Amino acid sequence: MNFGGASQCGDFATREFGTRASRSRAIFYGVCALLFALSAAATIVACVSMSTMGDMPMPGDWTMSMMWMPMCGHTWPGIAVSFVGMWVVMMIAMMLPSLAPVLWRYGEALGRAGHARAGLMTLLAGVGYFAVWAALGAALFALGATLAALEMQIPAVSRAVPVVAGVIVLSAGALQLTAWKAHYLRCCRQAAPYRLHALPTRAVAAMQYGVRLGVHCCFCCASLTALLVVSGVMELRAMAAVTVAITLERVAPRGEFIARGFGFVIVGAGLFMIVRAASLV
Predict the structure, then answer these.
(1) Label partner for 200 (CA 20 to 30 A): which of 130, 146, 163, 209?
(2) Transmembrane residues, as ranges (predicted)?
(3) Are 219 and 131 in contact (CB under 8 A)?
């Protein structure tokens, strides 16, 4: 029996599998990099366009972004759709650096399980993930527009905004230090595809996996998302800082330690905001 020939065939098959895996990985991350670049460029353009509109001075020595109110010729439904679309593009740019490795592991697991069209299933998982962020964006727009209307109509509410913003930032920093945050951060860092056969159709299972991942991610990022909203949503420096924070706590070693470090910094920023706002009253 030619055991040497069988061994050589096995080695060739292993090398061939490794080559295909490397090629697939390169294509996957290349597509992710292109998507990140396009979404980041679109976000920058939207932020620059928004900055040219200026902000409205409000009682309490702060300014309100014009994105929360309808401009001439625009309707509330149209503004809401525009905001959610802009929000999703922004989330793609901010979340993709930490999401890409998770989606890659999901696609790999599908391939090892013998699933056909693993690439399509991975895409559907990504769609499910960002659908959750789209729903959050719609809720944030409804809340933001309602608060903007109250601030425009009631000066006392407007004057309280700087202090309330400081309290929100302080609370966000404190949330970073809790076991609740640590739990959902572990869920995101250790995200792995499981129960792939729980539903009768693989497409539904992929969407379900993406939605579940998105919900965990929204919970994990609650404090950092609050910072983004308080900063005005379309503030490029805040977006960059939050993106770096999310990516580091998700993919860097000792992510929970990093998250707590950011928490202490955010608590300090919140205290500073409260003291500054109180001094202006």
Answers:
(1) 130
(2) 26-54, 74-99, 120-148, 160-180, 213-234, 257-275
(3) no
Whether the CB-CB separation of 88 and 130 falls below 8 Å is answered with: yes
Residue found by looking up tokens 């202006």 in the block: 280
Looking at residues 138-167, what average pLDDT do you find? Answer: 90
Taking Cα atoms as reference points, which of 122, 105, 136, 113 lies closest to residue 220?
136
> How large is the C-alpha radius of gyration of the chain?
23
Quickly tell me which residue has 């992929």 as its tokens: 206
d(CA 206, CA 121): 6
Residue from 259, 106, 242, 243 nearest 183 by CA: 259
89-111 average pLDDT score:
92
**Alpha-carbon distance 34 to 15, whole Å?**
28
Q: 249: which 2 tokens?
A: 């706590």
pLDDT in tens, 23-59: 888 999 999 999 999 999 999 998 888 777 767 778 8
Three-state secondary structure call for residue 58: strand
* Residue 115 CB contacts under 8 Å (≥ 6 apart), including other chains: 121, 196, 202
Where are the strands (E) in the chain, listed by range?
Answer: 55-58, 62-65
- Structure tokens, 236: 């490029």
Distance CA 82, CA 93 (A): 17
Cα 81 to Cα 53, 78, 179, 215, 279, distances in angstroms: 19, 5, 36, 21, 39
